[in-house]
Design goal:
Blueprint: H1 5-14, E1 25-35, E2 59-61, E3 67-71, H2 78-95, E4 100-101, H3 125-141, H4 143-146, E5 151-156, H5 159-169, H6 175-193, H7 196-201, E6 206-207, E7 222-223, E8 229-230, H8 259-270, H9 275-278, E9 283-284, E10 287-288, E11 306-309, H10 318-325, E12 329-335, H11 347-362, H12 370-386, E13 393-396, E14 399-402, H13 403-425, H14 429-442, H15 448-458, H16 463-480, H17 488-508, H18 513-522
Length: 523
């Protein structure tokens, strides 16, 4: 049986367990390009003072040497999560000379995508594998798509949350299986409602013309007087077919009805060969061009706005970790970098995600067939390219709804969750956030995408100059403030330790890379 949000809230109150809701765990991963003061990519290698990109816990690179990724540890406080991210960025900014951190998701001016340097993780087998994987991404999709930046938000509810819910639902499953099933219920509801994320937080309605690099697109772009390409109602071009997607995966159906189905279908997807990618070849002149010619080189290549996750042991595949120990947390991947925040994400956004994801966990979550899932993906596709179009209708299990009508409906349903979180934490911060986001539903001009287009299109301003001014201000702001959770000494010691850890990995290799790779894919 399933219980209502109201029933769950009352059970927490009756058992004096509201404090369990203060134990929600969060982690933030923020990607950002290093750029020069004039607005071009920096081609300086990953700075040695930042530590080893292979082994550092908080500072690494994503696709390219100049695409940094900052990772916060697990935190049970929105303020701490964002504060730790600020500390990491403060240290990085102190070590990268006059370079800036690009505050937008879509990249700055790039004269030649082929010049973008792949991330280098050293000479170890695992480091080489990471670089070859990126070589495969370059050959398959091109480098421009890979240097789009985003925010990944990791979220988990405390085990006590699931134990209380399991008791209320009188479930006889093991807690591990029950927890995994409920996380998949969360995933299905996220699939249904995730169009809200680009609508509320999409900040990439316009791009620099250099992004296309001669590629053709069917999107009906218009051009601002300042030379930028845009769609008048777009919210997040990063999440469109133009951005971080994989058309080769369109034939793959990954089901979110249960962990076992999901793992079976991911395993099948990993084995699907691609005629297109086979033409690239595995090696050319003795150099690896990709890890293999399948649709997915490895599981990480499966693009999705959300993923079920479990911390893997050293050398363990993500799917094996999930199969052995169940779902531990979920990773939200649909967030643009927030250009109006020095850290790329605000405390208010974290609070809204707390509400939204807890709501997705508690709200009734019917199974999704292929058609349902496809329709919700189409809703997402529509919102990223024309989410503020007053004529847009979204499909909710066959019922056509406007953004405003469906948005109000969802916000009404989320209000008890916001009230419950406020009751647990004290104050009304969660309800304030919910009201502020609801205002964007009522008035699309309040969304960040609308504000950016008003600046670029209506005012004829340069997006590049605006972004550089923001980046300069954020650098000054972060460098001027004190460390909140870390220290300069901590980061300096962490950098040294990470270089030592990388060398230890390199020294411990005993087999050739060919043998290492063969063993990895055979296990």
């Amino acid at each position: 049986m399933s219980v209502s949000i109201q029933d769950f809230a009352q059970a927490l109150r009756n058992n004096q367990q509201l404090a369990e809701l203060t134990k929600i765990s969060r982690g933030i991963e923020r990607e950002t390009l290093r750029v020069l003061p004039r607005g071009e990519l920096s081609y300086h290698p990953h700075y040695h003072a930042l530590g080893s990109a292979l082994t550092h816990d908080e500072i690494t690179t994503d696709y390219a040497e100049n695409l940094l990724e900052f990772i916060t540890p697990v935190s049970q406080s929105p303020e701490q999560a964002v504060g730790q991210l600020a500390d990491i960025q403060k240290f990085v900014l102190s070590e990268i000379d006059d370079e800036l951190l690009w505050p937008l998701s879509m990249p700055c001016f790039v004269d030649d995508a082929n010049k973008i340097p792949l991330a280098n993780y050293g000479s170890s087998n695992i480091g080489t594998m990471k670089t070859v994987y990126r070589q495969g991404l370059k050959n398959r999709y091109g480098s421009m798509m890979q240097v789009i930046a985003g925010i990944h938000f990791n979220f988990s509810l405390p085990q006590s949350f699931w134990q209380i819910l399991q008791t209320l639902e009188n479930s006889q499953q093991s807690l591990q299986d029950y927890q995994s099933d409920k996380y998949f219920a969360l995933l299905r509801n996220y699939k249904r409602y995730c169009w809200l994320i680009p609508y509320l937080y999409g900040s990439s309605p316009a791009i620099c013309p250099s992004f296309l690099q001669g590629r053709k697109t069917t999107l009906p772009f218009e051009k601002s007087s300042s030379g930028y390409m845009y769609l008048p109602y777009a919210t997040s071009l990063r999440m469109s077919d133009l951005g971080y997607t994989n058309n080769a995966q369109s034939s793959l159906y990954i089901c979110y009805n249960s962990l076992s189905q999901y793992l079976t279908q991911v395993a099948k997807a990993m084995a699907v060969s691609s005629d297109e990618f086979e033409k690239i070849g595995i090696k050319k002149d003795g150099q690896y061009q990709q890890l293999n010619s399948n649709v997915l080189q490895i599981e990480n290549e499966l693009y999705s706005p959300i993923r079920p996750k479990r911390v893997a042991k050293s050398g363990e595949k993500p799917s094996h970790a999930l199969a052995e120990r169940g779902v531990e947390y979920i990773e939200v991947r649909a967030l643009d970098v927030n250009p109006f925040s020095a850290t790329g994400i605000s405390i208010e956004q974290v609070r809204f995600l707390d509400i939204f994801l807890t709501f997705c966990a508690l709200n009734h979550s019917p199974a999704l067939d292929c058609d349902d899932q496809h329709q919700f993906e189409e809703n997402m596709n529509d919102v990223v390219v024309r989410g503020r179009d007053p004529q847009l209708k979204l499909n909710d299990f066959g019922a056509l709804k406007s953004v405003q009508a469906w948005g109000r409906e969802i916000f009404t349903a989320m209000l008890p969750v916001a009230q419950l979180l406020d009751e647990a934490h004290g104050g009304d911060a969660y309800q304030q956030v919910l009201n502020a986001e609801l205002a964007k539903i009522k008035d699309p001009s309040l969304t960040p995408s609308a504000k950016i287009l008003a600046h670029v299109v209506n005012d004829g301003q340069s997006l590049t100059k605006t972004a550089l001014a923001m980046a300069g201000d954020y650098k000054a702001q972060l460098l001027a403030q004190d460390y909140q959770y870390y220290s300069q000494d901590y980061f300096e010691r962490a950098a040294i330790a990470s270089h030592q850890a990388q060398k230890a990995i390199e020294d411990s290799d005993t087999v050739s890379f060919d043998d290492f790779l063969a063993d990895y894919f055979s296990s």
